[in-house]
Write a structure and sequence with these properties.
Length: 329
Amino acid sequence: MNQKVVRYGIMGAASIVPRIVAGIHESPNSEVVAIAARSLAKAKQAADQFNIPQAYGSYVELCEDDNVDVIYVPLWNAGHYSGAKLALQHHKNVLLEKPFTLTYVQAKELFALAKKQGCFLMEGQKAAFLPITLQVRDQLLNKQAIGKICAITVQESHPGIEKIPWFHDVTVGGGAFYGSASYSLEYLQLVLQTEITDYQGQVSRVGVQADDQTQLNLKLGSGQLASIFMTTLSEQVPSQMIFWGTEGSLMVPNYWKTDSYELKVGKKIQQITHPQNSEFVYEFNHVSEQILQGEQSSDVMCPTVTLATMKIIDRLYHQWYPDQMKKIR
């Protein structure tokens, strides 16, 4: 690509759009040129609010815009596969918000289509590119700041999302695990540069059809055990990931968007921060750089990690909800 700035089109006017636009605006090699919604009025409203030049009342029109280089897809979970497929069929590069798809088969199909079309495709996982994430990896793997890593504990609280109507329906991507599993599963793989070799999971349902709490136990290829607990029921559970070592511990609060971490070695405690305006800017910097270089996939948030994660999510949901999963096509 001979140009210096990558032009983004946004498929949908979801609640995440303001934060996305802020991240793109902060990225020196990125700009927003169009947005589409299911109605032209809604698209125009978003375009006016965020100073986006072009508004479309259909996703097809967005995909047909020659001024759009890459389409960011933040649709509801059930719309991720179809939205990304539509864009790829129109030879558009795609940044697809997590969860990537609802099934492993869908994920494989999208990557195969992207390769066929000669397009870039990446799962939107901003945590992979945060400066704090890079520092955490350096502390754990290169500096071995906490000694040998023995175990990892993860807990997440996402109260309020159960109020979203479709959250209660697994067939459209509802459930706590669908919504948040990729955060922790991919963070572990990326930070520790390893794979997940074994896993078991349980869910609870309190008055809803989909899972509102999930407990997952993992074994990593690098030898450590990890546990993940996520809930939508309590605001009292602190969202954090803790790496436990032979000489100390490292805690990352709200690890998927954080600007800080805490390092404990012996009696010494350090609070490390990296101020940021938008947690999305680093992801857009990377995506735009990859597209400008003519790449078809990310060398950081690579297809291998996305597919490995989708295989875990798919298999567990088939264990928990076999009848509902049969309805997903």
